[in-house]
Amino acid sequence: MKVLVPVKRVVDANVKVRVKADNTDVDTTNLKMALNPFCEIAVEEAVRLKEAGSVTEIVVVSIGAKPVQEQLRTSLALGADRAIHVQTDEELVPLSIAKILKAVQEKEQADLVIFGKQSIDGDNNQTGQMLAALTNMPQATFASELTLTADSAEVIREVDGGLQTLKMPLPAVVTADLRLNEPRYASLPNIMKAKRKPLETLSIDDLGVSLKAHQTIIKVTPPAERKAGIMVSSVAELVEKLKTEAKVI
Fold first, then answer.
1. Helices in 119-187 by DSSP H: which ranges?
2. pTM to 2 decimals?
């Protein structure tokens, strides 16, 4: 059984981002970049399925400029078998990314596609769902537990009232929630081995995908800074401020 895992290069979660002076985008110059944490969970789950004997091959794929190969090599060091880099310098919206992944899936014919449920930069949470719709594959989002059989996948996901269990035929799309697993660290020997694992580079034209712009960024601005709080000396003063200043009671 083959598993395809799309991964994304994002600004490291511990880095504070800033907006460009001309308000056109976030300034990523000289910032530390990393594998999107939810994608890391998806890679880890694929590796665990392979270790359990349910999966025979793990293919990771990423779309973007040449530096995304760093994150593909990280995924290979974590246990993926080979990588595909769809190289482009364009900033792509989720629907365009889903269309490219559809072409990759048609080429690879993976039995299961595991996504992170969202990226920590765009925070969109939609590419996995879009791929499922484009390929007409069943999907299970926000998976906190995943079990495979020869021809089906069983997913447990958290819902407002408790846990929901879904069973669906393969091939299918699953998006990974935070509780699915705890990713491992890549060991030095595996980092060295990852340098020798196959990494195929393709262009969007190689995949025969035609894209068009669906969105335009008008302006990027930082969030408003929080005002400092104040200390009150009594409950009566608090109530008075809530009435007269905050006007919430």
1. 127-135
2. 0.86
Strand order in the sheet with 199-203: 162-169, 152-159, 139-148, 172-176, 112-116, 2-6, 57-64, 82-87, 199-203
Cα dist. 43→94, 152, 218, 229, 230 in Å? 20, 19, 34, 42, 46
CA atoms of 120 and 180, how far apart (whole Å): 17
Phi then psi for residue 194, to 5 deg, are -60, -25
Helical (H) or strand (E) element with 2: strand 2-6
pLDDT, tens digit (0-9, with 9 covering 90-100), for 118-140:
999 888 889 999 999 999 999 99
> Is the CB of residue 113 less than 8 Å from the CB of residue 145?
no
What's the rounded Cα separation, in Å, for the pair 246 and 123? 31
> Which burial class, exposed, middle or buried, applies to 49 when counting CB atoms under 10 A from its CB (0-12, 13-18, 19+)?
buried
100, 63 Cβ separation under 8 angstroms:
yes
CA distances from 214 to 23, 97, 128, 218 (A): 20, 12, 18, 13
Model pLDDT for residues 207-238, shown as the tens digit of each residue: 999 888 778 889 998 888 888 888 889 999 99
pLDDT band, very low/low/confident/very high, at 96 (cuts 50, 70, 90) = very high
